[in-house]
Amino acid sequence: MDHAALNVFREKIKNSGRYKSTGNLQKDCEKLGLIKNKKLTRATELLFGLHHTNIHIGRFKTQTIIIDDLMIRSPLILAVDEAIDFIKKNIRLAFEIGGETTQRKERWQYPIPAIRELLLNAIVHRDYTDPTDVIIKIFDEEIEITNPGKLLGGLTIEKILSGNYVPKHRNKLIVESFYLTGDIEKYGTGFRRVKEWFKDYPELKYKILDLKDFIQIKIFNVTENVTENIILKEIENNNKITTNELAKRLNLTRRTIARYISNLKEQDVLKRIGPDKGGYWKIINDEK
To answer: 47, 42, 37: which is closest to 6 by C-alpha?
Structure first.
C-alpha cells in the first residue's frame, strides 16, 4: 500500500463531503468494501497499491515518430494527476487578455477538465482482466485515449452521446472511490459535462469509437482538417504548386504548410513524385 495514495484519498474524501470518516482509515476501508475479511480487494490494490496495469502516454510528431514517452504504474489515485501533468507538458498553452480586467487568462490547447473527465472515464470503466494498458497518444492537433473493455448492458455510443442512458459499472469499488473523492459523478452525467466544456473550444470536436474490445476517444482540431482539404484542392488544381506558393495563397508560413503536407503524407493521402524542383504532387485515392 502506498502511503501517499492513502493520504491523498483521505484528504480528498474529507474535502468532498461525500463520506463521513470514522477517523480510522482501516475501518473506513472496511466500511467502503475496500477491505473484506481482513484482506485487500483487487480494487484496493489498484487504487492504493503496487500493480501492473499501466497508463502509457506518448507524444507523437507523426504516426511513427515518438518524441516523448511515459509509462505510469502508480496507484490509480495518484496516476490521474501524473497523466494530466504529462499531457499539459505536451500541449500548447496560450494567454488571453480581455474583458474588464487586464489579468491574463490561461487557455490550454484542449479543455483540461474535459480531458481529465475522459481519462477518469477510461480508468474507472476499463476491463482490468485485460493486461493491455490505457493508451494515450498526443499528436500536434489530436489526442487519442484508448482503454480495454466493451460497453456493458446494451449501452451504445449513440446513447452515451445523447446523455440518455443508465450508467453501468464494471468496477463498482473503483467508481465509488473516485465518486467519494469528488473526481466523478455516478449518474451518467460525465459526457454532458464534457459537452459543456467543449463549447468554449469551437475549433475542437471529439468522437467515441467502439473498437470491439476497446473504447477510443479522439479529440481533434477541425480547422486543421479544413486547411488540409483546402491544400488538397489547390494541389488538385495545380499538382506542381510549390510550398511557397501554397503559403502565399493560404496566408500561412512555409513551415506551417510543410507540417500540413507531412500530415497528409503520413495519412497516405498525398505523395511527392520526383524532386522538389521539377517534381509534382499526387493525390492518392483510397481504393481499399
So the answer is: 47
Q: Long-range contacts made by residues 90-96, C-beta under 8 angstroms, separation at least 24?
A: 90/59, 90/138, 91/138, 91/143
Instruction: Using alpha carbons, select from 114, 236, 120 the residue that is nearest to residue 174.
Output: 120
d(CA 89, CA 174): 27
Q: pLDDT tens digits, residue range 135-170?
A: 999 998 899 999 999 988 888 898 888 877 778 889
Global pTM reads 0.78
Strand partners, 59: 68, 138
3-state helix, strand, coil in the chain (%, to 5): 40, 20, 40
Alpha helices in 126-253 (DSSP H): 157-162, 172-180, 190-198, 222-237, 243-250
Q: Which helix H or strand E contains 93, and what residues bound it?
A: strand 93-97
The residues facing 204 across adjacent strands are 221
Which three cell numbers mark 214? 476497446
